[in-house]
Amino acid sequence: MSSDAPIGVFDSGVGGLTVAREIMRQLPEERMVYFGDTARLPYGSKSRDTITRFVRQIIAFLKTRQVKAIVFACNTASAYALDTIEKEIDLPIIGVVRPGARTAVKATKNKKIGVIATDATINSGLYTEFIQAIDPEIQVYSKACPLFVPLVEEGLTHDFVTEEIARRYLSRFKEDEIDTLILGCTHYPLLRSLIGRLMGNEVRLVNPAYETAIALREMLADKGIAAWPGTIAEGHHEFFVSDGAEKFRVFANSIMPQTIPETKVINIEKF
């Protein structure tokens, strides 16, 4: 695989842009092809079989763009489909769950970690499994926060309704006395300031999007397919969605470090 080939990144919608944003910041020399499955979101309420079928279609599309590696920029897809897909393709792939879990284990002092995520990610138990595989003494407290995704998708990150819902979701962690909280859905970093304010300075927030970008850099170097350092890939990224291209582009340009001039719609069901 050529080192100048792009990286494929996908998510159910705009949440994975937090991962794409960190890749742009941490790996500025890498080109990227991003796909947001906006026609079929949210993934968090769907079954393992359905999510796995969706992921197979997305990977088939990304392969047509000659990608050299694939990032599952979606906690639900990482939890439900990554292990299966890893056995089916010959491209290096990376998800967002493992990097976030590793960082949380390093961060916690009192061995009490909280996880907020979609129903599917929480029900998979994958964060707890990875964390306790590293340190069985750590207690993991999980909470599904399904309303965060549509609120972020609608751009209501600073709305009083979002704050009230967040307050209700997060109140239980005060009793659990966690000192570390994993933002276990790629939408949630867009609520980081709100969550941080409600949890207080004594709780460390772990952003798996950032940790995934760092882990991706290490993986590309290990595989010998990292882009040449010193090159800049700005302006050479591609963005695709399954629906609502203009809405996606406007939202993306509100959070991304580089302007996205165009977003293309593809019929993902063809793949």
Q: Percent of residues in helical segments?
A: 40-55%
Structural class: alpha/beta
Q: How many domains make up the coordinates?
A: 2
Could you give a short account of the major beta sheet?
6 strands, parallel
Tally of strands: 10
Using the 3D structure, state the CATH architecture of the largest domain. 3-Layer(aba) Sandwich
Q: Please state the CA-atom Rg, rounded to the nearest Å.
A: 18 Å
Quickly count the helices.
12
Predict the CATH topology of the largest domain.
Answer: Rossmann fold
Question: How would you classify the quaternary structure?
Answer: single chain
Order of helices and strands: EHEHEHHEHEHHEHHEHEHEHE
Top CATH class of the largest domain? Alpha Beta
Mean pLDDT: 94
Shape label = globular
Estimate the strand proportion.
15-25%
End-to-end distance, in Å? 22 Å
Low-pLDDT ranges: none
Strand order of the largest sheet: 4-3-1-2-9-10
Structural features, described:
The chain has 271 residues and is α/β, with parallel strands linked by helices. It has 2 domains: 7-95 and 210-270, 3-Layer(aba) Sandwich (Rossmann fold), CATH 3.40.50.1860; 97-208, Rossmann fold. Helices cover 45% and strands 15% of the residues. It has helices spanning 17-26, 48-64, 75-80, 82-86, 97-107, 119-124, 126-134, 148-153, 160-176, 192-199, 208-223, 245-255; strands spanning 7-11, 32-36, 69-72, 93-95, 112-117, 139-144, 180-183, 204-206, 238-241, 264-265. The strands form 2 sheets. Strands 4-3-1-2-9-10 form a 6-stranded parallel beta sheet, with helices on both faces. It has a 4-stranded parallel beta sheet with strand order 6-5-7-8, with helices on both faces. Helix 5 (97-107) crosses helix 11. The radius of gyration is 18 Å and the shape is globular. The two termini are 22 Å apart. The model has no long low-confidence stretch (mean pLDDT 94).
